[in-house]
Amino acid sequence: MLKKELVTRVTSNLEGFLKKDVGYAVDIILENITEALAEGRRAEIRGFGSFSVRQRKARSTKNPRTGKIMDIPARNTVHFTMSKSIKEPLVKKKNG
User: Fold this and answer.
1) Could you give the number of structural domains in the chain?
2) CB atoms within 10 A of CB 48
3) What CATH number does the domain containing 80 carry?
4) Which distant-in-sequence residues (6+ apart) come within 8 Å of 68 by Cβ?
5) Which tens digits make up the pLDDT trace of 17-62?
6) In the structure, what pLDDT confidence band is assigned to residue 96 with cuts at 50, 70 and 90?
7) Which residues contact 82 (CB under 8 A, 6 or more apart)?
8) Pair 82, 49: CB distance under 8 Å
9) 3/9 Cα distance (integer angstroms)
């Protein structure tokens, strides 16, 4: 789902709100999550999941095209852990 689709769906469920207002609210939410992660804090949305920053170790890898060994430095990545309320329907759907 794209952000545009999310804004459209939320707007259709909330009468009296304009798409630009809902879009602005979504932007504010995403900015606050980004700021929390940049500060090294965790962002949790109950019933959805949590975002946290994890450190990836430095490593060496081989370029498949040239065969040259490349060193990749350590870096931070975003990790998402889904809540139980999202995980259960996905597991049920997978197991059929």
Assistant:
1) 2
2) 12
3) 4.10.520.10
4) 62
5) 999 999 999 999 999 999 999 999 999 999 999 999 999 999 999 9
6) low
7) 48, 49, 90
8) yes
9) 10
